[in-house]
Amino acid sequence: MNNPIRYFIADIHLTDNEPASGYFDITAGFLSFLESLPDCCELYILGDLFDYWIGDDVNTKLHQEISFALRSLTERQIKTYFVHGNRDFLLGERYAKSCNMTILSDINYLPTGSSNILFLHGDLLCTDDPQYQKFRKIMHKKWLQKLFLKLPLFIRLKIAGKLRQKSSSYNQIKSETIMDVNQQAVEKMMLKYDASIMVHGHTHKPSTHQFLVNGKPASRLVLGAWHDGVSYIKQDSNCDTLQLYNHSFK
């Protein structure tokens, strides 16, 4: 029996005040991509669907538009799965339910004929940046998340804005190496999950990397961000190989 066709995307960074990218903005590009998906496929969103998320109780026009579009995929028997990113890790079951979207764990794998396809957002692999990993560990504490979500909306907005500003300033002084994944972390995770293929986003560096893990061929496919166009990975039914595609909005 063939597996469904699978699509992987990440780092769409949807926001209410996005600048237009040529004549095609990111939201329009994302909605067009959803419409182009074939019936009965599976869609895996590997984090940072939104540029930031401060709680499921925030219900903007954009949030409604995206939830309607994702929920509509169900009518075409398309299943949607979501992995938290570093920008939208607070996205919860309430919003996911409105999208008919299943939230997965931080690290996941799918069996293939020979081994596994491992997929995640990708920030866990950036182990050369201990300051970020420490921050990530703190922000993923459930008690702290619950406390934050109980704060008034205007306070959450201020905190989120300051954190984004601080992150942007810090990233400007980081080296490219520090912000990229660590190859040893990649290989260690692939060995742990018996995977020959890894898919992730986060770094905004779309590419396909070929290497050896324990003497066996392996590949790492990196999704691009949607600032300039559509970036997705496709796995055809009953096929161990995956292909990365990048298309300009123009």
Q: Mean of residue pLDDT?
A: 91
Strand order of the largest sheet: 4-3-2-1-10-11
Count, helices: 8
Unreliable spans are: none
Largest sheet: 6 strands, mixed
Helix content: 25-40%
Overall geometry comes to: globular
The number of strands is 11
Helical/strand content category: alpha/beta
Instruction: Tell me what portion of residues adopts beta-strand conformation.
Output: 15-25%
Rg estimate, integer Å? 18 Å
Order of helices and strands: EHEHEHEEEHHHHHEEEEE
How far apart the termini lie comes to 38 Å
Characterise the protein shown here.
The chain has 250 residues and is of the alpha/beta class. It is 33% helix and 23% strand. The chain has eight helices and eleven strands. The chain has a six-stranded mixed beta sheet. A five-stranded mixed beta sheet has the order 5-6-7-9-8, with helices on one face. It is globular, with a radius of gyration of 18 Å. The mean pLDDT is 91.
Quick rundown:
The chain is α/β, with parallel strands linked by helices. The chain has helices at residues 26-36, 61-72, 93-98, 130-139, 142-149, 153-173, 176-179, 183-192; strands at 6-9, 42-45, 79-82, 101-103, 107-111, 116-120, 195-200, 207-213, 216-222, 229-235, 243-248. The protein has a six-stranded mixed β-sheet. Strands 5-6-7-9-8 form a five-stranded mixed β-sheet, covered by helices on one side.
